[in-house]
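Researcher: Good morning. I'm working through a list of sequences from a screen, and I'd like to move beyond sequence-only analysis. For each chain I'm collecting a predicted structure so we can compare shapes side by side. This is the next one on the list. No need for commentary yet; just the structure.
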Amino acid sequence: MISRKNASISKFIIHKVGNKFNDTKNAFSEKIVDFDEASYDLMLPFLLKPFSSVVQSHRFNHHSNITLNEINSYSNQIFNDDDAFIETSKHIVNHLYEQSNSSQIKTGDVLIVMFEGIEFNEITTNALGIFKIENKVNFFQTYLENNSYDVLVQKGISSKKVDKGCLILNQSDAEGNIIFSVDNNNYDAQYWINQFLNIKYADDANSHTQQYIELCKDFSTDILKTSYGSQEQNTFLAKTIDFFKEHEVVNLETFKEDVFAEDKHKTLFDSFKKEFESEKNILIRNQFDISELVVNKEKKKIKTDIKLDTNIQIKLDIDAPEAASEYLERGYDDEKKMHYYKVFFNVEG
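Model: Good morning. C-alpha coordinates for this chain:
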Protein backbone atom coordinates (compact mmCIF):
# COMPACT_ATOMS: atom_id res chain seq x y z
CA MET A 1 0.00 0.00 0.00
CA ILE A 2 1.12 3.54 -0.68
CA SER A 3 0.88 6.63 1.48
CA ARG A 4 -0.31 9.84 -0.17
CA LYS A 5 -0.02 12.24 2.78
CA ASN A 6 2.95 14.10 1.21
CA ALA A 7 1.99 13.53 -2.43
CA SER A 8 1.54 16.26 -5.01
CA ILE A 9 0.75 16.59 -8.73
CA SER A 10 3.60 18.01 -10.80
CA LYS A 11 2.19 17.43 -14.33
CA PHE A 12 -1.33 16.66 -15.50
CA ILE A 13 -2.76 16.36 -19.00
CA ILE A 14 -6.10 15.19 -20.39
CA HIS A 15 -6.65 13.39 -23.69
CA LYS A 16 -9.63 11.54 -25.10
CA VAL A 17 -9.40 7.97 -26.35
CA GLY A 18 -11.67 6.61 -29.05
CA ASN A 19 -12.56 3.07 -30.03
CA LYS A 20 -10.93 1.43 -33.03
CA PHE A 21 -13.81 -1.05 -33.31
CA ASN A 22 -16.37 1.76 -33.59
CA ASP A 23 -14.11 4.04 -35.65
CA THR A 24 -14.16 6.85 -33.08
CA LYS A 25 -10.93 8.87 -32.97
CA ASN A 26 -8.56 10.08 -30.29
CA ALA A 27 -8.35 13.77 -29.36
CA PHE A 28 -5.21 15.26 -27.81
CA SER A 29 -4.33 18.21 -25.62
CA GLU A 30 -1.21 20.23 -26.35
CA LYS A 31 -0.75 21.75 -22.89
CA ILE A 32 -0.74 20.50 -19.33
CA VAL A 33 -3.55 21.54 -16.99
CA ASP A 34 -3.04 24.61 -14.81
CA PHE A 35 -5.21 23.89 -11.75
CA ASP A 36 -7.00 26.39 -9.62
CA GLU A 37 -6.82 25.64 -5.89
CA ALA A 38 -10.31 24.13 -5.56
CA SER A 39 -9.87 21.78 -8.54
CA TYR A 40 -6.44 20.65 -7.36
CA ASP A 41 -7.63 19.96 -3.82
CA LEU A 42 -10.39 17.75 -5.21
CA MET A 43 -8.36 16.05 -7.94
CA LEU A 44 -5.38 14.84 -5.87
CA PRO A 45 -7.30 12.61 -3.41
CA PHE A 46 -9.70 11.52 -6.18
CA LEU A 47 -6.81 10.00 -8.11
CA LEU A 48 -4.72 8.56 -5.27
CA LYS A 49 -7.27 7.40 -2.70
CA PRO A 50 -8.07 4.11 -4.55
CA PHE A 51 -4.45 3.00 -4.20
CA SER A 52 -4.31 3.54 -0.44
CA SER A 53 -6.04 0.20 0.15
CA VAL A 54 -4.40 -1.83 -2.65
CA VAL A 55 -2.11 -4.45 -1.13
CA GLN A 56 -1.00 -6.47 -4.15
CA SER A 57 1.45 -4.96 -6.59
CA HIS A 58 2.22 -5.85 -10.22
CA ARG A 59 5.28 -5.91 -12.46
CA PHE A 60 5.56 -5.37 -16.21
CA ASN A 61 5.30 -8.48 -18.36
CA HIS A 62 6.22 -9.44 -21.93
CA HIS A 63 6.44 -12.78 -23.69
CA SER A 64 9.94 -12.18 -25.08
CA ASN A 65 11.67 -9.12 -23.58
CA ILE A 66 10.42 -6.76 -20.89
CA THR A 67 11.94 -3.77 -22.69
CA LEU A 68 9.38 -4.33 -25.45
CA ASN A 69 6.48 -3.69 -23.09
CA GLU A 70 5.04 -0.41 -24.38
CA ILE A 71 3.95 1.14 -21.07
CA ASN A 72 7.25 0.14 -19.48
CA SER A 73 9.06 1.97 -22.28
CA TYR A 74 6.81 5.06 -22.17
CA SER A 75 6.99 5.39 -18.38
CA ASN A 76 10.80 5.21 -18.49
CA GLN A 77 10.86 7.95 -21.13
CA ILE A 78 8.76 10.20 -18.89
CA PHE A 79 10.83 9.43 -15.78
CA ASN A 80 14.10 10.13 -17.59
CA ASP A 81 13.14 13.19 -19.63
CA ASP A 82 11.00 16.03 -18.23
CA ASP A 83 10.38 17.39 -21.72
CA ALA A 84 8.96 14.07 -22.98
CA PHE A 85 5.79 14.20 -20.88
CA ILE A 86 3.28 15.66 -23.37
CA GLU A 87 4.34 13.74 -26.49
CA THR A 88 4.81 10.46 -24.63
CA SER A 89 1.39 10.84 -23.02
CA LYS A 90 -0.08 10.87 -26.54
CA HIS A 91 1.76 7.63 -27.34
CA ILE A 92 0.18 6.08 -24.23
CA VAL A 93 -3.30 7.03 -25.47
CA ASN A 94 -2.55 5.66 -28.95
CA HIS A 95 -1.43 2.38 -27.37
CA LEU A 96 -4.66 2.26 -25.35
CA TYR A 97 -6.63 2.91 -28.54
CA GLU A 98 -4.95 -0.02 -30.30
CA GLN A 99 -6.27 -2.38 -27.61
CA SER A 100 -9.93 -1.44 -28.22
CA ASN A 101 -10.89 -4.39 -30.36
CA SER A 102 -14.44 -4.77 -29.07
CA SER A 103 -17.60 -2.69 -29.04
CA GLN A 104 -17.66 -3.19 -25.24
CA ILE A 105 -14.55 -1.06 -24.81
CA LYS A 106 -15.71 2.42 -23.91
CA THR A 107 -14.34 5.73 -25.09
CA GLY A 108 -13.41 8.22 -22.41
CA ASP A 109 -11.06 10.75 -20.89
CA VAL A 110 -7.48 9.66 -20.25
CA LEU A 111 -5.62 11.47 -17.49
CA ILE A 112 -1.82 11.19 -17.52
CA VAL A 113 -0.34 12.45 -14.27
CA MET A 114 3.08 12.84 -12.68
CA PHE A 115 3.06 12.60 -8.90
CA GLU A 116 5.78 13.59 -6.46
CA GLY A 117 6.15 12.46 -2.86
CA ILE A 118 4.59 8.99 -3.13
CA GLU A 119 5.61 6.89 -0.12
CA PHE A 120 5.98 3.11 -0.37
CA ASN A 121 7.84 0.80 2.02
CA GLU A 122 9.52 3.78 3.72
CA ILE A 123 10.80 5.09 0.38
CA THR A 124 9.63 8.36 -1.16
CA THR A 125 9.51 8.47 -4.95
CA ASN A 126 7.72 9.98 -7.91
CA ALA A 127 5.20 8.01 -9.95
CA LEU A 128 3.32 8.05 -13.23
CA GLY A 129 -0.43 7.68 -13.07
CA ILE A 130 -2.62 6.64 -16.01
CA PHE A 131 -6.38 6.91 -15.53
CA LYS A 132 -9.30 6.23 -17.83
CA ILE A 133 -12.66 7.85 -17.07
CA GLU A 134 -15.37 5.91 -18.88
CA ASN A 135 -18.60 6.81 -17.13
CA LYS A 136 -19.97 10.32 -16.78
CA VAL A 137 -22.74 11.19 -14.31
CA ASN A 138 -25.62 13.62 -14.67
CA PHE A 139 -25.68 16.69 -12.46
CA PHE A 140 -27.85 19.79 -12.28
CA GLN A 141 -26.41 23.17 -13.17
CA THR A 142 -28.35 26.29 -12.17
CA TYR A 143 -27.94 29.55 -14.07
CA LEU A 144 -29.40 33.05 -14.08
CA GLU A 145 -31.33 34.23 -17.13
CA ASN A 146 -33.69 37.25 -17.38
CA ASN A 147 -33.58 37.83 -13.63
CA SER A 148 -34.72 34.25 -12.90
CA TYR A 149 -32.83 31.09 -12.12
CA ASP A 150 -33.22 28.09 -14.37
CA VAL A 151 -31.72 24.60 -14.34
CA LEU A 152 -30.18 22.29 -16.94
CA VAL A 153 -28.64 18.83 -16.84
CA GLN A 154 -24.97 18.40 -17.68
CA LYS A 155 -22.66 15.39 -17.68
CA GLY A 156 -19.39 15.30 -15.78
CA ILE A 157 -16.85 13.14 -13.98
CA SER A 158 -17.92 11.79 -10.61
CA SER A 159 -15.44 12.65 -7.87
CA LYS A 160 -16.24 9.42 -5.98
CA LYS A 161 -14.12 6.87 -7.85
CA VAL A 162 -12.00 6.36 -10.94
CA ASP A 163 -13.05 3.73 -13.48
CA LYS A 164 -9.57 2.48 -14.28
CA GLY A 165 -6.18 3.56 -13.06
CA CYS A 166 -2.60 2.48 -12.57
CA LEU A 167 0.26 3.94 -10.59
CA ILE A 168 3.78 3.17 -11.86
CA LEU A 169 6.38 3.95 -9.22
CA ASN A 170 9.79 5.21 -10.25
CA GLN A 171 11.07 2.54 -7.91
CA SER A 172 11.95 -1.05 -8.76
CA ASP A 173 13.00 -4.31 -7.17
CA ALA A 174 14.47 -7.48 -8.66
CA GLU A 175 11.32 -7.94 -10.75
CA GLY A 176 11.14 -4.40 -12.13
CA ASN A 177 9.03 -1.29 -11.57
CA ILE A 178 6.42 -1.53 -8.82
CA ILE A 179 2.90 -1.02 -10.20
CA PHE A 180 -0.53 -0.75 -8.60
CA SER A 181 -3.74 -1.08 -10.58
CA VAL A 182 -7.44 -0.50 -9.90
CA ASP A 183 -10.38 -1.34 -12.13
CA ASN A 184 -13.98 -0.69 -11.07
CA ASN A 185 -15.44 -1.89 -14.40
CA ASN A 186 -14.56 -5.58 -14.46
CA TYR A 187 -16.47 -6.39 -17.64
CA ASP A 188 -13.29 -5.68 -19.64
CA ALA A 189 -10.59 -6.46 -17.06
CA GLN A 190 -8.37 -8.31 -19.56
CA TYR A 191 -8.29 -5.23 -21.75
CA TRP A 192 -6.76 -3.06 -19.02
CA ILE A 193 -4.48 -5.50 -17.19
CA ASN A 194 -3.31 -7.89 -19.89
CA GLN A 195 -3.59 -6.01 -23.15
CA PHE A 196 -2.94 -2.36 -22.31
CA LEU A 197 -0.64 -2.54 -19.28
CA ASN A 198 0.56 -6.14 -19.80
CA ILE A 199 1.35 -6.65 -16.12
CA LYS A 200 1.45 -9.62 -13.78
CA TYR A 201 1.29 -9.99 -10.02
CA ALA A 202 4.58 -9.68 -8.19
CA ASP A 203 6.20 -12.89 -6.99
CA ASP A 204 5.82 -12.08 -3.30
CA ALA A 205 3.96 -13.06 -0.14
CA ASN A 206 1.05 -10.75 -0.95
CA SER A 207 0.34 -12.48 -4.27
CA HIS A 208 0.92 -15.99 -2.95
CA THR A 209 -1.46 -15.39 -0.04
CA GLN A 210 -4.09 -13.76 -2.25
CA GLN A 211 -4.02 -16.58 -4.80
CA TYR A 212 -4.26 -19.27 -2.13
CA ILE A 213 -7.22 -17.59 -0.44
CA GLU A 214 -8.94 -17.22 -3.82
CA LEU A 215 -8.33 -20.94 -4.40
CA CYS A 216 -9.91 -21.77 -1.04
CA LYS A 217 -12.90 -19.50 -1.64
CA ASP A 218 -13.60 -21.04 -5.05
CA PHE A 219 -13.16 -24.56 -3.64
CA SER A 220 -15.61 -23.80 -0.84
CA THR A 221 -18.23 -22.57 -3.34
CA ASP A 222 -17.76 -24.97 -6.24
CA ILE A 223 -17.11 -28.17 -4.30
CA LEU A 224 -18.03 -27.99 -0.61
CA LYS A 225 -21.22 -25.92 -0.82
CA THR A 226 -22.47 -27.82 -3.88
CA SER A 227 -21.81 -31.29 -2.45
CA TYR A 228 -22.01 -30.83 1.34
CA GLY A 229 -23.93 -27.61 2.04
CA SER A 230 -23.27 -24.14 3.44
CA GLN A 231 -22.29 -25.32 6.90
CA GLU A 232 -19.38 -27.36 5.51
CA GLN A 233 -18.41 -24.45 3.26
CA ASN A 234 -18.35 -21.88 6.05
CA THR A 235 -16.56 -24.17 8.49
CA PHE A 236 -13.80 -24.67 5.92
CA LEU A 237 -13.47 -20.92 5.29
CA ALA A 238 -13.29 -20.21 9.02
CA LYS A 239 -10.63 -22.89 9.47
CA THR A 240 -8.70 -21.49 6.50
CA ILE A 241 -8.59 -17.97 7.98
CA ASP A 242 -7.72 -19.42 11.39
CA PHE A 243 -4.81 -21.33 9.83
CA PHE A 244 -3.50 -18.18 8.15
CA LYS A 245 -3.74 -16.25 11.42
CA GLU A 246 -1.91 -18.93 13.42
CA HIS A 247 0.95 -19.58 10.99
CA GLU A 248 3.68 -17.50 9.37
CA VAL A 249 4.18 -19.97 6.52
CA VAL A 250 1.70 -22.01 4.50
CA ASN A 251 2.71 -25.56 3.77
CA LEU A 252 0.16 -27.38 1.58
CA GLU A 253 0.35 -30.70 3.44
CA THR A 254 0.16 -29.07 6.86
CA PHE A 255 -2.78 -26.97 5.71
CA LYS A 256 -4.74 -30.01 4.52
CA GLU A 257 -4.04 -31.88 7.78
CA ASP A 258 -5.31 -28.92 9.82
CA VAL A 259 -8.49 -28.04 7.93
CA PHE A 260 -9.74 -31.38 6.55
CA ALA A 261 -10.91 -34.20 8.77
CA GLU A 262 -11.46 -36.65 5.90
CA ASP A 263 -8.97 -37.85 3.29
CA LYS A 264 -11.55 -37.57 0.51
CA HIS A 265 -11.67 -33.79 1.05
CA LYS A 266 -7.88 -33.60 0.76
CA THR A 267 -8.05 -35.45 -2.55
CA LEU A 268 -10.81 -33.15 -3.80
CA PHE A 269 -8.73 -30.12 -2.82
CA ASP A 270 -5.65 -31.41 -4.67
CA SER A 271 -7.69 -32.02 -7.83
CA PHE A 272 -9.39 -28.64 -7.61
CA LYS A 273 -6.03 -26.89 -7.11
CA LYS A 274 -4.75 -28.33 -10.40
CA GLU A 275 -7.89 -27.20 -12.24
CA PHE A 276 -7.71 -23.74 -10.64
CA GLU A 277 -4.07 -23.30 -11.67
CA SER A 278 -4.81 -24.39 -15.22
CA GLU A 279 -7.85 -22.12 -15.56
CA LYS A 280 -6.09 -19.06 -14.09
CA ASN A 281 -2.78 -19.85 -15.79
CA ILE A 282 -0.89 -19.57 -12.50
CA LEU A 283 1.20 -21.85 -10.30
CA ILE A 284 0.33 -21.77 -6.60
CA ARG A 285 3.30 -22.64 -4.44
CA ASN A 286 3.04 -25.51 -1.97
CA GLN A 287 4.93 -23.42 0.58
CA PHE A 288 5.14 -19.64 1.00
CA ASP A 289 5.26 -16.85 3.58
CA ILE A 290 1.90 -15.45 4.67
CA SER A 291 0.98 -11.78 4.19
CA GLU A 292 -0.92 -10.58 7.24
CA LEU A 293 -2.15 -7.52 5.31
CA VAL A 294 -3.83 -9.70 2.68
CA VAL A 295 -5.34 -12.05 5.27
CA ASN A 296 -6.90 -9.17 7.21
CA LYS A 297 -8.27 -7.60 4.03
CA GLU A 298 -9.70 -10.85 2.63
CA LYS A 299 -11.18 -11.84 5.97
CA LYS A 300 -13.47 -8.80 5.82
CA LYS A 301 -14.79 -9.92 2.43
CA ILE A 302 -15.68 -13.47 3.40
CA LYS A 303 -19.37 -13.98 4.13
CA THR A 304 -20.26 -16.87 6.44
CA ASP A 305 -24.04 -16.47 6.41
CA ILE A 306 -26.27 -19.46 5.75
CA LYS A 307 -29.29 -18.11 3.88
CA LEU A 308 -32.38 -20.31 3.96
CA ASP A 309 -35.43 -20.20 1.71
CA THR A 310 -37.65 -19.73 4.78
CA ASN A 311 -36.37 -16.14 5.23
CA ILE A 312 -34.02 -17.15 8.05
CA GLN A 313 -30.27 -16.49 8.10
CA ILE A 314 -27.67 -18.10 10.35
CA LYS A 315 -24.50 -16.05 10.75
CA LEU A 316 -21.37 -17.96 11.72
CA ASP A 317 -18.38 -16.32 13.42
CA ILE A 318 -15.36 -16.64 11.11
CA ASP A 319 -13.08 -16.29 14.16
CA ALA A 320 -14.58 -19.41 15.78
CA PRO A 321 -14.05 -22.20 13.24
CA GLU A 322 -15.01 -25.04 15.62
CA ALA A 323 -18.33 -23.51 16.68
CA ALA A 324 -20.22 -24.52 13.54
CA SER A 325 -19.33 -28.20 13.85
CA GLU A 326 -19.76 -28.28 17.64
CA TYR A 327 -22.95 -26.27 18.14
CA LEU A 328 -24.73 -26.46 14.78
CA GLU A 329 -26.40 -29.66 13.63
CA ARG A 330 -27.96 -30.27 10.22
CA GLY A 331 -30.67 -32.84 9.57
CA TYR A 332 -33.77 -33.81 7.63
CA ASP A 333 -37.36 -33.98 8.94
CA ASP A 334 -39.24 -36.83 7.23
CA GLU A 335 -42.62 -35.54 8.37
CA LYS A 336 -42.19 -32.01 7.03
CA LYS A 337 -39.90 -33.20 4.25
CA MET A 338 -37.59 -30.29 4.95
CA HIS A 339 -33.98 -29.84 6.01
CA TYR A 340 -33.31 -28.22 9.40
CA TYR A 341 -30.51 -26.77 11.53
CA LYS A 342 -30.39 -27.34 15.28
CA VAL A 343 -28.43 -24.68 17.21
CA PHE A 344 -27.11 -25.30 20.75
CA PHE A 345 -26.45 -22.42 23.16
CA ASN A 346 -26.45 -21.45 26.84
CA VAL A 347 -27.49 -17.80 26.88
CA GLU A 348 -29.05 -15.56 24.27
CA GLY A 349 -26.96 -12.49 23.44
